[in-house]
UniProtKB/TrEMBL annotation:
Name of the protein described by the UniProt record: NADP-dependent alkenal double bond reductase P2
Domain named Enoyl reductase (ER): residues: 16-341
Annotated organism of origin: Zea mays
SUPFAM superfamilies found in the cross-reference section: GroES-like, NAD(P)-binding Rossmann-fold domains
Domain of life: Eukaryota
Record lineage: Eukaryota, Viridiplantae, Streptophyta, Embryophyta, Tracheophyta
């Protein structure tokens, strides 16, 4: 079986903020054979995530944990799709799967313990749209839940600060922290996003960081009694300001530093004396750290979504050709919630 497969590739290594011109849509023939042991998936939803930019650089610390992306080659990414041909018993034609597929129309994979892939129950029967399986029930939900509960370890009544709080992870962290009985403040880059955090997602308070000339003073206003947990998605001055306002034995769950990905912003220079004498714990992590507990986390998160306790924000673009603009928009602050591309 042969299919024409379009895929998105970078034209070159990307060292600054990405633009649509950094990408191209290429075409190849994907070949599946009955004796190959492979599964051919027609992709339906693609996950668009900021961390991919680090993979696109010529050199990045991220390459220690995930493979770098070479110009002209297909880009592996979390996605959901439908099996259209299978040479193994585990997957049948018509099965819907979610896992590491790619920014492309079709993906071939060979099942193995090293391949992150799972079958998705009938989305309608489960009460969830398919898109949820790569957002709140995918890597975004796993990052938010694992980062907050396994790294942050919230206790009822504690004070939680979430940066980039209207993004795919931050929007969930704030809601999870409220369910844990915490006081939650988030920051975002527009008035509309701030209103969304307070009015729809239930944050106790929120502010537009672009309107604050002194972030340390701003956080002191919102947290007069200090911050116990900081869920970090931004880096730079935001991290410095949060550390200055942390309480003794505070915890920083370091999920991302998007302001530092493009090289355009000032890198964080944390006051290490704050860390030492406040005995602050700073721990970096990413979604795959919690892979063994994926099903456990999703059972809890799915229950919250089903009961209406968690609101899911998804920002969906249409068509493979929209992947470059969707990705670039992440670094312009133009997305709300999880950025996805729908192919069919």
């Amino acid at each position: 079986m042969e299919v024409v497969n379009r895929y998105v590739a970078t034209r070159h290594h990307i060292e600054g903020a990405p633009t649509e011109a950094d990408f191209e849509v290429k075409e190849e023939t994907a070949r599946w054979a009955p004796d190959s042991g492979e599964v051919l998936v027609r992709n339906l939803y693609l996950s668009i995530d900021p961390y991919q930019l680090n993979r696109m650089k010529r050199s990045s610390a991220s390459h220690l944990a995930v493979d770098g992306i070479l110009p002209g080659q297909r880009i592996a990414a979390y996605a959901a799709g439908e099996v259209v041909a299978s040479a193994c018993e585990e997957y049948k034609v018509g099965d819907v799967v979610a896992g590491v597929l790619g920014w492309e129309d079709y993906t071939l994979f060979k099942p193995s313990p090293a391949v992150l892939m799972s079958k998705v129950a009938d989305a309608d029967a489960a009460g969830f749209p398919l898109s949820h399986h790569i957002s709140v029930l995918g890597t975004s939900g796993m990052t938010a839940y694992g980062g907050l509960f396994e790294v942050g370890k919230p206790v009822k009544g504690e004070k939680v600060f979430v940066s980039a709080a209207s993004g795919s992870v931050g929007s969930l962290v704030g809601q999870f922290a409220k369910l844990a009985g915490c006081y939650v403040v988030g920051c975002a880059g527009t008035t509309a996003k701030v209103d969304l955090l307070k009015d729809k997602l239930g944050f106790d308070d929120a502010f537009n960081y672009k309107e604050e000339p002194d972030l340390k003073s701003a956080l002191k206003r919102y947290f007069p009694d200090g911050i116990d947990i900081y869920f970090e998605n931004v880096g730079g001055e935001m991290l410095e300001a949060a550390l200055a306002n942390m309480n003794t034995y505070g915890r920083v769950a370091l999920s991302g530093v998007i302001s530092e990905y493009t090289g355009g912003g000032r890198r964080a220079v944390p006051d290490l004396l704050e860390v030492i004498y406040k005995r602050i714990t700073i721990r970096g992590f990413f979604a795959w750290d919690f892979l063994p507990r994926f099903a456990e986390f999703n059972a809890v998160i799915g229950g919250w979504v089903r009961d209406g306790k968690v609101q899911v924000l998804e920002d969906v673009s249409d068509g493979l050709e929209s992947v470059p603009s969707a990705f670039a928009a992440l670094f312009r602050g133009q997305n709300v919630g999880k950025k996805l591309v729908k192919l069919a």
